Amino acid sequence: MSNPGGENGGRGDGPGRDKAGRPAGRAAEPVRARAIITGLVQGVSFRWWTRRQAESLGVTGWVRNLDDGSVEVVAEGPRVAVEKLFSDCRRGPHGARVEDVEVSWQPFTGEYSRFAIVH
User: Fold this and answer.
1) Which CATH number does 25-110 carry?
2) Banded model confidence at residue 38, pLDDT cuts 50, 70, 90
3) 19-31 per-position pLDDT tens digit
4) Domain ranges, ordered by start, for the chain
5) Which residues are catalytic?
6) What does the alpha-carbon distance between residue 13 and residue 27 come to, in Å, rounded to a whole number?
7) Which of 80, 87, 94, 118 is 20 to 30 A distant from 13 in Cα terms?
8) DSSP tag of 88
9) What is the pTM for the complete model shown?
10) Per residue in 94-118, pLDDT tens?
11) 115 Cβ neighbours under 8 A, 6+ residues apart
């Protein structure tokens, strides 16, 4: 029987693939990303909420308010956890109105041992 596209037809969780069809291990791959979050994100406990979310996901890095009213986040950890953190940031804490989360991916450094609020 022919199998076009290789094992599993090039889809699914075949050898070397996770259930989403990504190369195995990619979800756990350590990554670093920087995000600028805009909208009503200051004065609503966004930094404290972000730190709590990051800690629950095992993500390290920092969060700070910027002078223009936005929030900046630098996060390191497993790709799936960093992606989840930024997905959660699109919602934010109660009282926040997030307009945008602009993420830029950077080389992983491993320089952080915890997630901090920076002033």
Assistant:
1) 3.30.70.100
2) very high
3) 555 555 678 899 9
4) 25-110
5) 47, 65
6) 13
7) 87
8) H
9) 0.79
10) 999 999 999 999 999 999 999 999 9
11) 51, 54, 55, 59, 60, 61, 62, 63, 75
